[in-house]
Input
Amino acid sequence: MFKGRHFDRSVILLCVRWYLAYGLSLRDLKEMMAERGISIDHSTIHRWVVYFSPLLLERFNRRKRAVTGKWHADQTYIKVRGRWMYLYRAIYSVGDPVEFWFSEHRDLSAAKRFFRKALERHGRPERIVIDGSQTNREAIVSCDATSRLHDRSRRKLKPIRIRQSQYLNNRIEQDHRRIKRRVRSMLGFTSFKSAAATLAGIEMVHMMRKRQARFAYNPHPSIAAQLKLSQRRERARTLKLYGAEGIYNRTPEHACSQDAALDP
Output
């Protein structure tokens, strides 16, 4: 993932982690790196955030614990180039983030994609609490019916219970605060692509704070430790496939087939 980069991966991960986790601007990070003797332009840090955030989230999801039981689902507003767009989010009853989906539109199609993604990754919850949105209710009913039809087990699945209440959903309204607080200091986004990538990184850091990943020998790692462990695991997979010398001495004939086998 870091092959061919001018800077060391520790510098890249440090800048990406600080930008996603704390209320720092790109120019703040530029000055902080300059104090450490590293000259980096603020636009370079922005490109790192947009490029590496989805990749780091993908590796984090391999270790993330499934969350079932009772969900709270809602959407919040994010402004991109002067337009309001929508971030669909769901959390567990104790506050652990379940899933998110960033969409340009707030309609039935976007709600279905969000709930379908959550059900495929985490399984079927017992109950979902939503506000008075009829669109979200129709999306849950549709995705629930599709999930039961595709289920190959012989056990009888109960329909997902839906609870519509404006006041019972205050839990996820409060959880929106941490995401909105970090986005507010960024002074807006200029494109949908960069907004989606940055929000993916912010949600990943939020899940890391909740310690939702599985680590056998360290049950309470810090955010920095979780990023390092994810990269260490990726390097171990590469060494297992290529061998210690095969990483640097691959023949062109084998490179394509080995790269295809490495992808999950």
Observations:
- The chain has a mean pLDDT of 83.
- Strands lie at 70-80, 83-92, 97-103, 127-130, 161-164.
- Residues 9-61 form one domain.
- The two ends are 14 Å apart (CA to CA).
